[in-house]
Amino acid sequence: MEVRTYLERLASKAPVPGGGGTSALGGALGAALGQMVANLTVGKKKYAAWEEEMKGLLRKMGDLQERFLILSGKDEEVFAPLAEAYRLSADTEEEKSEKARVMEERLLEASQVPMEIMEVSMEMLEILKVLEEKGSVMAVSDVGVGVQFIRTALTGAAMNVFINTKSMKNREKAEELNRRAEQMMEQGTRTADQLYEKVFSRLR
Predict the structure, then answer these.
(1) Is 20 within 8 Å of 157 (Cβ atoms)?
(2) At what angle do helices 140-165 and 51-86 cross, to 10 degrees?
(3) Are the CB atoms for 70 and 56 separated by under 8 Å?
(4) What is the pLDDT of residue 165?
(5) Rounded CA gap, 139 and 39, in Å?
(6) Would you tell me how many other CB atoms lie within 10 Å of the CB of residue 5?
(7) What is the Cα–Cα distance from 49 to 56, expressed in whole angstroms?
């Protein structure tokens, strides 16, 4: 989809795309910026010592970018069945039971996609740490921008975990997902903020 068309759909009343999918798209943009930094580093004599490492990171970031894009689409795919589940009839006890079963199943599915977005974001932050240290100094600001995109992917996805687990009846499973999301959010935002500060201090 062209960027303009995507934005028009995002701005509309249409149920998708939404916050989850755009969080993943932000992650893809962060991964693309990381690749740009690595590409500007490869082939330069000044950074010859890290040539092979940069090439390896390029491959990894290409894979992470693709995973972000897949998860953006997957977020849309799991939202539609969840929206349908909310509309199921619950007039009889049998219908109530079936609706509860379907809701629980689809809430879990809808929680797992943003969890994956968070996991991919954590991987990408580790690569950005290397790029801040070893990447071309001419592109250090792009590392900082990439960090902010990944931070948004992480925190945006976290909100989509919590909004779904909040409605789950299986509180044990919900709290397990919440704990994992909280751990990643705490660790990831700390890493992202420290990285951003390092980049910003180098620019001033």
Answers:
(1) yes
(2) 30
(3) no
(4) 96
(5) 10
(6) 9
(7) 13
pLDDT (0 to 100) of residue 87? 81
For 141-190, give the DSSP string: HHHHHHHHHHHHHHHHHHHHHHHHHTT-S-HHHHHHHHHHHHHHHHHHHH
Torsion of CA 22, 23, 24, 30, to 10 degrees: 110
Confidence (pTM): 0.93
Q: pLDDT value at position 62?
A: 98
Neighbours of 147 (CB within 10 A): 28
Single-letter code of the amino acid located at 45 = K
Query: What six digits make up the tokens of 169?
Result: 């009846």
- What distance in Å separates the CA atoms of residue 190 and residue 174, rounded to the nearest whole number? 24
Query: If we measure between CA atoms, which residue out of 102, 82, 104 comes closest to residue 94?
Result: 102
**DSSP letter, residue 18:** -
What's the rounded Cα separation, in Å, for the pair 160 and 115?
9
Cα–Cα distance measured from residue 122 to residue 191, given in angstroms and rounded to the nearest whole number: 9
State phi, psi for 90 to the nearest 5 degrees: -145, 45
The CA-to-CA distance between both ends of the chain, in Å, stands at 38
Structural domains of the chain, with CATH: 17-203 (1.20.120.680)
Give me the DSSP letters along 81-96.
HHHHHHTS--SSHHHH
Task: Look up residue 18 and give its two tokens.
Answer: 């939404």
Where the chain has pLDDT below 50, the residues are none
